[in-house]
């Protein structure tokens, strides 16, 4: 079975509905590690060596986060800037992530129909997540289909629970 690293980036999991439910379900059911970035680094000083060791110890990497301004919360961007370094993740000798799998799990406030040409947010999630696709490509990881839950503030508690079950199934596939 694949060892999976879930990197959760939510600045306030206490008030979260969806990402909290996802995190709890994944912790129970997925073989690997659920790594909560904001809890690990309250001062936002990232231990790069520790993060790189974590990556090396897993086969599949998942970024889980709420969509903030059409991207991830800022600590996950900082994590990428520092952990995915030249000569390690890309560039000469930068082959450490080659052959791993990469997946996104994203919740959005906006509903699915808003994320298309002519819709309120104009662009699709596949278009808006291109920087992650490009990162995956440059680091030699295989980009798997994303798990995206939309219009999350309208979900009932049952739908939130069901979403967590579906995410686990996709992460384990
Ligand atoms: C700073 C900020 C930026 C946000 N930007 C977006 C956005 O660009 N698109 C969107 O659909 N929702 C946006 N939202 C809504 C969040 O995605 C939504 O609240 C989150 O997915 C809910 O997940 P949670 O229950 O785990 O907190 C934003 C929320 C905040 C606080």
TrEMBL record:
<dbReference type="GO" id="GO:0010181">
    <property type="term" value="F:FMN binding"/>
</dbReference>
<keyword id="KW-0560">Oxidoreductase</keyword>
<dbReference type="InterPro" id="IPR003680">
    <property type="entry name" value="Flavodoxin_fold"/>
</dbReference>
<protein>
    <submittedName>
        <fullName>NAD(P)H dehydrogenase (Quinone)</fullName>
    </submittedName>
</protein>
<feature type="domain" description="Flavodoxin-like fold">
    <location>
        <begin position="2"/>
        <end position="171"/>
    </location>
</feature>
<dbReference type="Pfam" id="PF02525">
    <property type="entry name" value="Flavodoxin_2"/>
</dbReference>
<dbReference type="InterPro" id="IPR046980">
    <property type="entry name" value="KefG/KefF"/>
</dbReference>
<dbReference type="GO" id="GO:0003955">
    <property type="term" value="F:NAD(P)H dehydrogenase (quinone) activity"/>
</dbReference>
<dbReference type="InterPro" id="IPR029039">
    <property type="entry name" value="Flavoprotein-like_sf"/>
</dbReference>
<dbReference type="GO" id="GO:0009055">
    <property type="term" value="F:electron transfer activity"/>
</dbReference>
